[in-house]
Design a protein that fits this description.
By secondary structure, the protein is α+β, with helices and mostly antiparallel strands. The chain is built from six helices and twelve strands. Helices cover about 25% and strands about 30% of the residues. It binds adenosine-5'-triphosphate (ATP).
Length: about 270
């Protein structure tokens, strides 16, 4: 099923501050939305600046992996935050609330509630099988003499047809394929930015998203495998900590995996 998606070039948010017209940059093709946003951030762009693109020539995931999407079929955006101090407390919480906001936006617009896959993917589960619907990637930037900034990038597969999914990734899915009908990208974008703005304001007012994030994670209490550079580790996922660290009960005791160079599998 192929779908002609509406263009997002005319998207405009009239309320709030995050992604409103003076803080919204649309470019049809970019290397990556993070690259464009980093340049803006280094030149003083305000918090809440959003860069959105229809296509990326060098989209990236974690650990130097590629993020691939056929042009016009996804939501590809990066959002700039200048979180309060201490940065190391707020940065992981910010990543958690982005995952929650994206999940809730998908649910509000489509009626389908995806799960979060630690640390920051949105997945759809079919029994023991899972498919990746979205990825979230955070990157930090620093300008000499200033507090660090955090960019959160989202790639949400909206209208990628079934025939194109294997070209993207063997484990990818899209809203079109899951629901069997097109979904309005502008509605998804608006719902996401609205939730992101509201939950970021709550975060700055002292809210800790950890309990909600933990409750939304797939595979808690289940046997999982962590693929780490030093080798694979199997165990039961028992908890996550305030900084996002995954806790596993293994045959050799408790193991901690900070968000970093590891991947999680069921
Ligand atoms: P993994 O998904 O292997 O646990 P990860 O969550 O750390 O790793 P990410 O950085 O989120 O991975 O995403 C990169 C990986 O996602 C790529 O290696 C590729 O397998 C897959 N991928 C790339 N583009 C897409 C896409 N549009 N939709 C779903 N999956 C994708």
């Amino acid at each position: 099923m192929a779908v002609n998606q509406e263009s997002l070039s005319q998207f405009s948010r009239s309320e709030g501050w995050l992604g409103t017209p003076s803080r919204f940059v649309f470019q049809s093709t970019v290397t990556s939305t993070h690259d464009v946003l980093r340049d803006l951030a280094e030149h003083g762009a305000p918090e809440g600046t959003v860069v959105l693109a229809e296509s990326q020539t060098a989209g990236r995931g974690r650990l130097g992996r590629r993020w691939v999407t056929p042009p016009g079929n996804a939501l590809l955006l990066s959002v700039l935050f200048r979180p309060p101090e201490p940065f190391l407390t707020y940065a992981p919480r910010l990543l958690m609330l982005c995952g929650l906001a994206l999940r809730e936006a998908v649910a509000a617009v489509t009626g389908m509630l995806p799960a979060l896959k630690w640390p920051n993917d949105l997945i759809v589960e079919h029994g023991e099988q899972w498919r990746k619907l979205a990825g979230i990637l955070a990157e930090i930037g620093v300008v000499a003499g200033e507090a660090p900034f955090l960019m959160v990038g989202v790639g949400l597969n909206v209208a990628i047809p079934a025939v194109q999914l294997p070209l993207v990734s063997p484990a990818a899915t899209s809203l079109l394929v899951e629901l069997g009908r097109p979904v309005d990208r502008a509605a998804l974008l608006g719902a996401f930015l609205q939730r992101l703005e509201g939950s970021y304001e709550r975060l700055c007012a002292g809210w800790n998203p950890l309990p909600e994030w933990r409750a939304a994670l797939a595979w808690m209490g289940r046997e999982v495998m962590v693929k780490a550079p030093s080798g694979d580790v199997c165990g039961v996922a028992t908890d996550v900590l305030d900084d996002g660290t995954l806790v596993l009960q293994t045959a050799n005791g408790v193991a901690h995996f900070p968000v970093g160079d590891v991947s999680l599998r069921i």
